[in-house]
Amino acid sequence: MSLFGSLQTASNTLQAMQIGLQVVGNNIANANTEGFIREKVNYVPAPPQQLGNLTIGLGVQIDSITQVIDEFLGEQLRGATGDYASAQVQDEAYKGIERLLGELGDNDLSTALTDFFGSIEDTLNSVSGDALSVRNLAVLEGSQLTSEIRRIEDRAKGLRDNYDAQVQQSVGTVNQLTEQIAQLNVRITQVEGGSSSKSDAGALRASRNQAVNQLTELVSATVSEQPSGGLSISVGGEFLVFEGQRRDVAFETGDTQGESAAELVFVDTGKALNLTSGKLQGLAAARDEIVDGFREGLDEFAATLIHEFNRAYSQGQGIEGFKSLTSVNRVDSPTDPIDAAGLAFAPENGQFNITVLTEGGAAKTATIKVNVLGDGSRSTTTLAGIASQINSVDGLSASVDSLGRLAISGQSDEVRFTFSNDSSGFLASIGLNTFFTGSGSSDIGINGELNGIRNASKLALARASATEDALPSSSTENAILLAEMIDKPLESLGGGSIIERYDQLVNELAQNSTVAGSVSEGLGIFEATLANEFQAISGVNIDEEAIDMISLQRIYQATARVIATIQEMLDTLVRL
Predict the structure, then answer these.
(1) Residue 567 lies in a domain
(2) Residues of the domain holding 41
(3) Is 265 exposed, middle or buried (CB count within 10 Å of its CB: 0-12, 13-18, 19+)?
(4) Residue 107 covered by a domain
(5) Burial class (CB in 10 A: 0-12, 13-18, 19+), 431
(6) Shortest CA distance to 275 belongs to which of 174, 178, 179?
(7) Distance in angstroms (rounded) separating the CA atoms of residues 513 and 519
(8) Cβ of 110: how many Cβ atoms within 10 Å?
(9) Is residue 335 part of a domain?
(10) How far apart are CA 90 and CA 84, in angstroms?
(11) What is the pLDDT of residues 295-354, one digit of tens each?
(12) In Å, what is the CA distance from 490 to each residue of 116, 506, 539?
């Protein structure tokens, strides 16, 4: 081997070490760059030289520059990040509802509930149960209770709408990321030359990897690299990105119980993205299952409170009977069967009594039939028919007004009437002599007939009977029954009580919140563990890079000494 051959070997080494130092410098420069993947130089022996029977090496050369990455670990990390993002959103949804309820404070719904029933019990301790201020306080506490239920419902709906808005806003982010990934696929393929190059387009791949991580944090996607270097990304078996091609997504607004619910769909086919994890799946679950599930439970609780309380309340009377009364609720048509006329709470088969105090001072009771068969047959009772039955009672007139409401009045100014023994629930269903109005948590309120201290005398704390002293009445029989309703077993709740139903709602929320918090914490730890493992492999370690830099420097210095020695030998040879 000639001196010139040795010089070529040293030259190859110097060039390789220079490139190695450049790669080390690039790694150090990007040590804090988010998403950067450490690069390494892959050295191989240079092709040997044949000298007679000898095979002599020509030093080192660079085979490629590649990223240091574990693709399997990276795929696991992307999946864990998506799971954690979904769990985080759901955990925050539960915590948001708990903050709405505020059960650890003094102004929560359970306090308003007990205060209301307590105020009814307080009327028993007033003089003859007819002190207007005490009665008015009971009405005010009821109003506070309904306001608290509506407040929670309004805030929960706002929370739900916020999640829905985030789903809609995510469309732009998904499209932007898929466009970025598709463009980077093309550029990477061009730089790397498909499979012809052994080196990675490091900076471009790092940018693409970061975009893929952001995308898979939003949606559950399967990522695979093609031989060309481009990526294929699919969601639920439907491709989203394939090398340089991509598909747009948009949000489609569906209707869920009268409320909009956005979901992501492919623009070209209209098919919904099948999401199993990721932030978007968490947002949809938080909206549709967690928040709406709580709202459904709150609505059922409010509906039970309204109807069950009104059933008991409507059979009582105030200090004086009614001169006239119009139902709060209305029917779609007075000639439709009463159980299919659009009432929020359909009446049952049964009857109720109307007690009338006529001009002569005698109290007479009439029974009104409500025929609801409940076996799939059509009801024989209509609101017009009930009005006709009441019209046949001496001293009373009844009709259905243009709004579909039942109006009852005495035939003279001296006539008073009240209700009792309603086994059908008709009075509560139509809203005659009721305390609460509405059908659920969104519209629960207090009957306007009770507003103001002057109307407190109408609070139905007494029970009517078919005796001459039934009207007027100052008894508290109905007040006792109403006060006991907070923990009275109800058939509609399977033997549970109103307070037990609310406690069940709160306990289920607390249990689900605890589970969601534990799941989120566990997934967070798992995701952090994988991220640390990935960083240990693919991240830049300054100490390791410093060691590599010193090693390259020493090799470079030694090679320079070799070149200096060869130069001296050549000078000696020339002088000869």
Answers:
(1) yes
(2) 3-68+540-575
(3) middle
(4) no
(5) buried
(6) 174
(7) 10
(8) 15
(9) no
(10) 10
(11) 999 999 999 999 999 999 998 888 878 889 999 999 999 999 998 899 999 899 999 999
(12) 19, 19, 64
